[in-house]
Design brief:
This is UCP3 protein. Belongs to the mitochondrial carrier (TC 2.A.29) family. Keywords: Membrane, Repeat, Transmembrane, Transmembrane helix, Transport. Pfam families: Mito_carr. With about 240 residues, the chain is mainly α. The protein has a domain of about 90 residues. About 65% of the residues lie in helices and about 0% in strands. It has eight helices and no strands. Helix 6 packs across helix 8. It is globular, with a radius of gyration of 20 Å.
Length: about 240
Amino acid sequence: MVGLKPPEVPPTAAMKFVSAGMAGCIADLCTFPLDTAKVRLQIQGEVRIPRTISSVEYRGVLGTLSTMVRTEGARSLYSGLAAGLQRQMSFASIRIGLYDSVKQLYTPKGAENTGMATRLLAGCTTGAVAVACAQPTDVHPTPGSSPPPDNIPCHFVAAFGAGFCATVVASPVDVVKTRYMNSSPGQYRNALSCLLALLMQDGPAGLYKGFVPSFLRLSSWNVVMFVSYEQLQRALVLARPALA
């Protein structure tokens, strides 16, 4: 580890940009099989599934992973990894690497602390820009209290909590998106018709198909990503004098 304490010299925007992209790739390398399992569970029961897997029934995270290895080989767990890494180099770099810069842009001059609304606006801005660019390929402290220590346990807990909240909110959209993208041309008129067909077939519970692997993947991705991000930033700050 480079160190548990923040560096005395803050990293530049370029360092944050590069660190975020590299950290996103590291997180994808560690969690990609969980994402693959999530997709297989989400499209299970769909009318149109590739013939190679149409007769296979997946049960749970470990069951899905073991079935894939047994029937398709271990390489199937990382199918599409190259595209995922390319996406992270642009998506994570913008969404996370530029977050602090955009947050400072929205923060009023002379303000001692950044409010929650400003943080949300900055996150939405970088997220929207990241989606636009990559699609083709903290809590405010109570006055008088000290913030949580900026260390690995803090990053771990915050990332897991954020992963759970994000999964609960985004899982229905993710399931519909996966079904819609997996469908044959003309099977659904639009995303809404896909949603209605899913509800008719599986009921409301169908919106949370693959929830466990999705939560495990997103939470572990956040943990690996943000821990790697902080360490890479600090490594670049320490290496800067030697590179100058």
